[in-house]
Amino acid sequence: MNDLTCIIIGGGHAGLSALKAIKETTRGLANGRRIRFVLLDKQPGHVRKMLLFRPAVGEEEIMIPWMHYSFSQGVEFVQGTVTSVDSGRKQIQYKDAEGNEAWTRYDLLVVAVGSVARRPDPDRGGISLTDLQTAAVIRERWRANLRQAVGETNPKERKRMMTVAVAGAGISGVETSAELVIEMQKEASSLGLNLSDVSVYLLNVKERLFPEAPEKVGYKLERTLNKCGVTVLHNRKAIREEAGMVTVSNGDRMPVGLCIWTIGLIPNPQLRSMGLPLTPDGQVLVDGSYRVQGAPGVYSIGDCTRIVDPRNGKADQMTCKEGGLQGDRLGKIVLADLEGRPAPIHKKVPLDFFCIGLGENRGLVWGRKQGFNMIITGKLAWKFRNIAWKAGSKLL
């Protein structure tokens, strides 16, 4: 009998979870047929997207080679970008790393292409923290500004060069601003600059930080940021950055050396060309067992998918935590479908749990279950955050 081919599109957090779970749950076999696993991703390795701010503030390498993972043994890796899915013929078209077009067939297909950072219109200036390339540009930009500030005799201009605005106060913006101000202070000290001239502003369009949690948690988070050196400005939306000035929604104009956009996520636009059923927001439509509507053998999980608990109608958020849980469940679903028995149904975990890193030995963890709130700060929270980062990338 011929092998079954299982292709996972996307090697992010959800894709890795799916690959590991399906491989381990099926043990590489289905009804006596061997399962051939193929992971297709545009990158040469797994990018730890939750740590994207790290190469923007320092030299940390956040790409993990595919072969680093024990469950990668026997898996074929293809670097490329999927351009279309023909669910009738069970084949996908993709463009490889050299730009060559190719088709390949599948028996099982998992779409886990995730999300991308939202970008403002180009005429709004600034730099969006979207990938490894923009992270490197951001790092070189603020470092160059500090070096230029050494020889600047005009105090106001020197202060501007040493000021950064982070537009967008979700967890990405919070973690970026916290680690950035620490690294800028270290660099300024090594250059003999006045540390009081280092300024990082976090622009928050809402009334307070972290609205998912009770007010006291948001206030505690803001106080910790303040201690790091970050100034949080609420009810402020960055309109545009131009010629070293950020125009803010309240009419203020802030002199800055750099404006970084961290304004949330959108489902991967790559989905629009695949021919799969999508919501108006661009997420893949699936049933309660992650099966893509009208496409036998095709599943979808992670940020790119609209996943709803059929019991209560609540949708999963676009988080690494939920994508990992979906991947674990998908392994059981695929095995059940291959064996022709009822498959598990999605169930939203009734636990709110968030970890936020605020620089080495600083962090905040908040969780809530059955009305009970838990808050952890300091070194222990930092350890929790590091565990979450590693778990999300299957490094534990």
What keywords describe this structure?
29% helix; globular; 396 residues; 5-stranded parallel β-sheet
Q: How many angstroms does the end-to-end distance come to?
A: 36 Å
Specify Rg, calculated over alpha carbons. Answer: 23 Å
Low-confidence stretches: none
Oligomer category: single chain
The largest pleated sheet is described as: 8 strands, mixed
Look at the helices and sheets and give the structural class.
alpha/beta
Level of helix content? 25-40%
How many beta-strand segments?
Answer: 25
Gross morphology is: globular
Mean pLDDT: 94
Strand content: 25-35%
- What is the number of helical segments per DSSP (H or I, 4+ residues)? 8
Task: Report what the structure shows.
- There is one protein chain.
- The chain has helices at 13-26, 54-57, 132-150, 155-161, 171-190, 215-228, 320-339, 378-392; strands at residues 4-9, 29-30, 33-41, 45-47, 63-65, 76-86, 91-96, 101-105, 108-111, 115-117, 127-128, 163-167, 199-203, 230-233, 238-242, 245-248, 253-255, 258-261, 265-267, 284-285, 298-300, 305-306, 352-357, 363-369, 372-377.
- It is α/β, with parallel strands linked by helices and 396 residues long.
- Strands 1, 2, 3, 6, 7, 8, 9 and 21 form an 8-stranded mixed beta sheet that branches. Strands 11-18-12-13-14 form a 5-stranded parallel beta sheet. It has a 3-stranded antiparallel beta sheet with strand order 15-16-17, with no helix packed on it.
- Strand 2 (29-30) and strand 3 (33-41) form a beta hairpin.
- Helix 1 packs parallel to helix 7.
- The model has no long low-confidence stretch (mean pLDDT 94).
